[in-house]
Amino acid sequence: MTADDREQGITAYVALGSNINDREHYLQNAIAALDQEAGITVTGLSSIYETEPVGYVDQSAFLNMVIQLRTNLPAEALLFTLLGIENRLGRTRDLRWGPRTIDLDLLLYGDEQLTTPDLIIPHPRMHERAFVLVPLTEVLYTRQDAAFEFISAHLEKLEGKEGVVLWKKAQ
Q1: Which residues are tagged catalytic?
Q2: pLDDT interval class at 1 (50, 70, 90)
Q3: Fewest CB atoms less than 10 Å from the CB: which of 22, 58, 75, 105?
């Protein structure tokens, strides 16, 4: 990607999840924090879905959603911004896949494919997770492009979609 592409803005998709205390509050605060960051504009929101935990299952259900961003930040700078917001909202990493106030995962960054020590794009496990694919498909629906077709095809093949329940419709 060129500097001109970034200047125009890149469309990126971020998955959000929370399962501690007022889960919706953490989702809303993360969205507001992202929208206030220089170089980032939130341009789309999925509905909010309630999902059972994956990995470490002895914890509360999650609220999950996906947001669409327009950004002129490089991918790694966007990742570090996401990590900073997680930190400000009280995210701790005591237990892999454990409870969290907020989890922000960079799923897609334009059409880029990137592998660095800190970041892999597209997100390497998103195609395995209904709690990511269901809201991502919802946000991508308006595009009806190759990305939408690709994600929809993965969602069709994925088992466990019944564990992703609409909690609050997008407004």
Answers
A1: 91, 100, 103, 105
A2: very low
A3: 58
User: What number of H helices and E strands is found in the chain?
Assistant: 5, 8
Residue 13, Cα to own-chain centre: how many angstroms?
A: 6
**3-state DSSP call for residue 121?**
strand
pTM, two decimals, is 0.83
Judge whether 132 and 157 are in contact, CB under 8 Å: no
Rounded to the nearest angstrom, the gap between the alpha carbon of residue 148 and the centroid of all alpha carbons in its chain is 15
Q: What angle do CA 53, 58, 62 make, to 5 degrees?
A: 30
110-166 pLDDT, tens digit each: 989 999 998 989 888 888 888 888 899 888 877 655 565 666 665 666 666 567 777
Query: Which secondary structure element, helix H or strand E, spans residue 4, and what is its range?
Result: helix 3-8
C-beta atoms surrounding 136 within 10 Å:
30
Instruction: Specify whether the CB–CB gap between 83 and 93 falls below 8 A.
Output: no
- CA distance linking residue 80 with residue 84, whole number of Å: 6
Query: Which domains does the chain carry?
Result: 3-168 (3.30.70.560)
Query: Residue 146: which H helix or E strand, with range?
Result: helix 146-157
* Tokens coding 105: 């995962």
